[in-house]
Amino acid sequence: MLRARVVRRGVLGTALLLAIGTHAVAQMPTFETRKVTDTAYIFRYMGHQSLFVVTPEGVIATDPIGYLRPQAVTAYISEIRKVTSAPIKYVVYSHHHYDHISGGRPFKDMGATFIAHRNARTRLEALRHPDVVLPDVVVDDRSVLELGGVRVELHYVGRNHSDNSLVVLLPKERLLFAVDFIPIGTVNFRNMLDSYLPDWFDSLDRVLALEWDRLIPGHPYAGGRLGTKEDVRALKQFMADLSDAVRLAADQGKCWDQAMKEIRLPKYEKWGAYDQDLPGNIERFCAYWGRGF
Ligand SMILES: [Zn+2]
Asked: What is the DSSP letter of 85?
């Protein structure tokens, strides 16, 4: 399941690049770091990205994004080192999926404390993957890191994509890092495996209630731009429209295959992964409207 995700993100990345021309493919570096504010940076490696926060007393990093590619972690650390020589104090996991959190050992060897939601630790303890560092500290509903005069808040906003997503809020910068459950202008991944309905909708409301203006996602959707609250509302509307359409189809006995073939939502046909993943999203809502989970 997780391996499939990595492969697919690679495919998505390729599609994205082809859409902007072969010239761009040659120019698009394997990885890059973008400064967003005086303290916040995005590190992108291929189709994954992480936030890191730099303070005079140390660095708060997030997802190592080193699944089956230790070179991504090496690049991540060397990119941080170009900005600061301050120690890397923390690594925060967005959720437990390997494609985002594998490969953290070099951070651990540098003395970083690993933080994740309590449910993430439970899942990772069950899986015991050799390339995944288990969290040292767990968060339940909320936790605050204060480092070098910078405040970083970790919020659990309920179950959505996984039962352990933590969002990272920089209140002064009004910046939010949220991974996988808010694809920007993009249809949800495949059949929304490891997802919780209807909790996901509540989760989006909880994100909207937080104080932020710009959202850093865990993948470079929509040309790599940052998200807004409008994007969160659009996703919620997409999922509501999809849910309504699938409910109707389910009541007509069209789930699974016929619904997956027939349902179209033209309003969203320009969204990323629409052709590829809409049938999977329909399958997920068929499960909900036939089984209530
Ligand atoms: Zn995920």
From this structure: -
Per-10-residue mean pLDDT for the chain, 293 residues long?
A: 37 40 58 98 98 98 98 98 98 98 98 98 98 98 98 98 98 98 98 97 98 98 97 98 98 98 98 98 98 94
Residue 76 lies in a domain: yes
Q: Please, are residues 184 and 194 in contact by the beta-carbon 8 Å criterion?
A: no
Report how far ligand 1's centroid is from the alpha carbon of 162 (Å).
7
Q: How far apart (Å, rounded) are the C-alpha atoms in residues 79 and 52? A: 10
> What is the model's pTM?
0.91
List b or e across 23-62, with b for residues whose CB sees 16 or more CB atoms inside 10 angstroms.
eeeeebeebebeebeebbbbbbbbbbbbbbbbbeebbbbb
Distance 221 CA to ligand 1 centre (A): 14
Q: What is the CATH number of the domain that holds 12?
A: 3.60.15.10
Q: How far is the CA of 20 from the centre of ligand 1 (A)?
A: 26
Task: Calculate how far, in angstroms, residue 193's C-alpha sits from the geometric centre of ligand 1.
Answer: 9
Has residue 282 been placed in a domain? no
Centroid of ligand 1 to alpha carbon of 31 (angstroms): 20
Alpha-carbon distance of 91 to 103, in angstroms, equals 12
Residue ranges making up the domain that contains 59: 2-183+196-227
When divided into structural domains, the chain yields a total of 1
How close is the Cα of 254 to the center of ligand 1, in Å? 29
Task: Confirm whether 188 is domain-assigned.
Answer: no
- Give the integer Cα–Cα distance in Å for 163 and 281: 18
